[in-house]
């Protein structure tokens, strides 16, 4: 009887070559590219006179740098010259090398990790890479998916393979019935808070257990998305009926008899009952409070009812210094209650939390209410299709009536490459994935939360417990 | 890629844990379509005020460390984004080696692709090298990749581990893609079989 994990199975199915020293060549089924980390890869191909091996296995979408307002003039009207050049360069590279490109004016355009699944480009059992660390998102479908650097983007374009060493197996069991107010975001923050931002280094995380099975596909994407924040190479969830239902009839999935064959195969994709993991932890979702980050690392997680930590109580010198630096950067006092932290901005968006379910959760909280005077709040849907769906449900009206801005899709203020950014010392409740120094703008202060918590903070002007809302 | 064998370089201390890729090269510099020129922007927000003037306290602005080629830092160096702009910026500044107790996975791989040697050492060894680096005054370390040793100013050597394959690629300055293309027949055979599957 086999004792292999889901990761082992996908790895084995993609092994082109294995050297004696453990270095392997892994076949890559799907490659997503965007404007920021691909130009130098195409430049490299041109310089060495190489071609793209299988153009049909790569899909391009511009997302990082793209404006979220005033798009009517098209790409040529983008004001920021460098951004425009980058987006035009992607278009040109795709045309030159025969790669399918979803342009800015296409309804399907969106954040690459929202668009990939929507297109059915993402499927179980595949290997998927992209020059973006949040590629771990696609693990929600039981695909082995991870971020790569630009040299590796070039390598995949040229060879459709990647040189890799096998990672170790780490199972995160999430048990218990998560109450309504506990979202995949809270589970993700709980995991990172528990194991730390380097806790997953060298591992692939498999999320399992009743609370994972209960998550929607959107929730699973949120959770797998943040695996990289725990340092893991990838996050994985075994595919099930929800996965198949999400994918059925998507544009790029198999049809007819091929679909049936695919589903039959996908049903074999789970860890064996006797599979051994190198590490395991268990988290009880039933007992989780809504979570907020206070500092400048995603592991700086506390309960909405908690207090900001006091560096004086930390023995480890490196940790104490990091905490002191984080508190100074964030403009917070040791021991202050989280709910007393006042915010200036709210950002609902990013590849972590910009899908329809996220927008519904936020809209439900703000319906009939107004954003606090001190707060500027914005919603950036994850794709044109999410935006269209939200508008069909009237969510745009709910956001606009409450005083939110309603934008066009892109990465936006998650990484603040475009015009959407925090000013120095501005404090933001954000549904994104990183609270690093300067992440949302120089000297900007980011607190990571779920969409419902961000929405509630927008109404009150400070963090509130969604359970009391 | 420049070959990496033995070199002697000035060592700079960055005594922080979780140095992330947004710190190493902030996103506003990711709009370039080139690999070169990012050294001017490495650690930008720690190194320069918004008006462009230097922040004197920052290590790389101190006269002793302006020519640094080796960086010693805390745990989990390079966490965050996959942006290869981070190693490009370090390399363009002049760094050929980063020493820390641990590294984030993607950053670690990206270094090797660009001729930068990331060395993970136990905390006690990093502490010694951090102390050397803090001496300033042009203190140098000698990195010998063939022998896998670091020589401290006091003559003590510290051994380090490195993946033999990656080590060889650095020493020879080998092109990864060229190496993989030598296995084209295997890729062809694998792909032909895989393309038959309904779900691929």
TrEMBL record, chain A:
GO BP terms: L-leucine biosynthetic process
InterPro entries linked: 3-IsopropMal_deHydase_lsu (IPR004430), Acnase/IPM_dHydase_lsu_aba_1/3 (IPR015931), Acoase/IPM_deHydtase_lsu_aba (IPR001030), Aconitase_4Fe-4S_BS (IPR018136), Aconitase_4Fe-4S_dom (IPR036008), IPM_dehydratase_rel_enz (IPR050067), IPMI_cat (IPR033941)
EC code(s) of this entry: 4.2.1.33
Catalytic function, reaction form: (2R,3S)-3-isopropylmalate = (2S)-2-isopropylmalate
Segments forming a coiled coil: none
Top-level taxon of origin: Bacteria
One Pfam family, short name: Aconitase
Known partners and oligomeric status: Heterodimer of LeuC and LeuD.
Designated name of the protein: 3-isopropylmalate dehydratase large subunit
UniProt source species: alpha proteobacterium IMCC14465
TrEMBL record, chain B:
NCBIfam families, alphabetized: leuD, PRK01641.1
Reactions catalysed, as given in the entry: (2R,3S)-3-isopropylmalate = (2S)-2-isopropylmalate
Classification via SUPFAM superfamilies: LeuD/IlvD-like
Short name of one Pfam family: Aconitase_C
Pathway: Amino-acid biosynthesis; L-leucine biosynthesis; L-leucine from 3-methyl-2-oxobutanoate: step 2/4
Keywords from the UniProt entry: Amino-acid biosynthesis, Branched-chain amino acid biosynthesis, Leucine biosynthesis, Lyase
Protein family per UniProt: Belongs to the LeuD family. LeuD type 1 subfamily.
Listed GO biological process terms: L-leucine biosynthetic process
UniProt keyword Electron transport, yes or no: no
Subunit-structure text: Heterodimer of LeuC and LeuD.
Secretion signal span: none
GO cellular component, one term: 3-isopropylmalate dehydratase complex
Residue span(s) of domain Aconitase A/isopropylmalate dehydratase small subunit swivel: 1-123
Enzyme class at the top of the EC tree: lyase
InterPro entries reported for this sequence: 3-IsopropMal_deHydase_ssu, Aconitase/3IPM_dehydase_swvl, AconitaseA/IPMdHydase_ssu_swvl, IPMI_Swivel, LeuD
Full protein name: 3-isopropylmalate dehydratase small subunit
Entry GO MF terms: 3-isopropylmalate dehydratase activity
The organism's place on the tree of life at top rank: Bacteria
Organism of derivation: alpha proteobacterium IMCC14465
The protein's Enzyme Commission number: 4.2.1.33
């Amino acid at each position: 009887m086999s004792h292999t994990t889901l990761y082992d199975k996908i790895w084995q199915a993609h092994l082109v070559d294995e050297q004696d020293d453990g270095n392997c060549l892994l076949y890559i089924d799907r490659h997503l590219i965007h404007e920021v980390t691909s130009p130098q890869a195409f430049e490299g191909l041109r310089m060495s006179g190489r071609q793209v091996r299988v153009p049909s296995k790569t899909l391009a979408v511009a997302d990082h740098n793209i404006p979220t307002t005033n798009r009517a003039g098209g790409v040529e009207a983008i004001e920021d010259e460098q951004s425009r050049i980058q987006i035009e360069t992607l278009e040109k590279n795709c045309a030159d090398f025969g790669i399918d490109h979803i342009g800015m004016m296409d309804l399907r355009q969106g954040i690459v990790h929202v668009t990939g699944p929507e297109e059915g480009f993402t499927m179980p059992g595949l290997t998927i890479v992209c020059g973006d660390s949040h590629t771990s998102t696609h693990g929600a479908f039981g695909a082995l998916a991870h971020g790569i650097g630009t040299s590796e983007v070039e390598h995949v374009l040229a060879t459709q393979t990647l040189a890799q060493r096998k990672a170790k197996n780490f199972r995160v069991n999430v048990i218990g019935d998560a109450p309504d107010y506990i979202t995949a975001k809270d589970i993700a923050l709980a995991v990172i808070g528990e194991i730390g931002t380097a806790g997953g280094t060298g591992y692939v995380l498999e999320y399992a257990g009743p609370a994972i099975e209960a998550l929607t596909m959107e929730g699973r994407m949120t959770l797998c998305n943040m695996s990289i924040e725990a340092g893991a190479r990838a996050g994985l969830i075994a595919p099930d009926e929800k996965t198949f239902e999400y994918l059925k009839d998507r544009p790029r999935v198999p049809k007819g008899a091929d679909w049936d064959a695919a589903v039959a195969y996908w049903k074999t994709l789970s860890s064996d009952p006797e599979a051994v993991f190198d590490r395991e932890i268990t988290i009880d979702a039933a007992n989780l409070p809504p979570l907020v980050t206070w500092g400048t690392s995603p592991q700086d997680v506390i309960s909405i009812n908690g207090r900001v930590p006091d560096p004086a109580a930390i023995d480890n010198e490196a940790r104490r210094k990091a905490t002191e630096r984080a508190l100074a950067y964030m403009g917070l006092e040791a021991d202050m209650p989280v709910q007393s932290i006042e915010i200036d901005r709210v950002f609902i968006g990013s590849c972590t939390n910009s899908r329809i379910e996220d927008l519904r959760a936020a809209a439900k909280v703000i319906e009939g209410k107004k954003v606090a005077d001190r707060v500027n709040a914005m919603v950036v849907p994850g794709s044109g299709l999410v935006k269209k769906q939200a508008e069909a449900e009237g969510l745009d009206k709910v956001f606009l009536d409450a005083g939110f801005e309603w934008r066009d899709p892109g990465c936006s203020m998650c990484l603040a490459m475009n015009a959407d950014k925090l000013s120095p010392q501005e404090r933001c409740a954000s549904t994104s994935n990183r609270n690093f120094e300067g992440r949302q703008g120089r000297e900007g202060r980011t607190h990571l939360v779920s969409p419902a918590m961000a929405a509630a903070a927008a109404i009150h002007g400070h963090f509130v417990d969604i359970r009391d809302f | 890629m420049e070959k990496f064998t033995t070199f002697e370089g000035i060592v700079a201390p960055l005594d922080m844990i979780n140095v992330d890729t947004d710190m190493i090269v902030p996103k506003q510099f990711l709009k370039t379509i080139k690999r070169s020129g990012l050294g001017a922007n490495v650690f930008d927000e720690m190194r320069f005020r918004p008006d462009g003037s230097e922040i004197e306290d920052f290590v790389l602005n101190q006269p002793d460390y302006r020519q640094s080629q080796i960086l010693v830092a805390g745990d989990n160096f390079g966490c965050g984004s996959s942006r290869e702009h981070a190693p490009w910026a370090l390399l363009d500044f002049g760094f050929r080696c980063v020493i820390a107790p641990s590294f984030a996975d993607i950053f670690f791989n990206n270094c090797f692709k660009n001729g930068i040697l990331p060395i993970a050492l136990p905390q006690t060894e990093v502490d010694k090298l951090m102390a050397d680096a803090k001496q300033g005054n042009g203190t140098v370390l000698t990195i010998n990749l063939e022998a896998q040793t670091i020589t401290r100013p006091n003559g003590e050597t510290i051994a380090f581990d490195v993946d033999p394959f990656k080590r060889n690629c650095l020493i020879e300055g080998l092109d990864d893609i060229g190496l993989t293309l030598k296995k084209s027949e295997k890729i062809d055979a694998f792909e032909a079989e895989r393309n038959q599957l309904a779900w691929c």
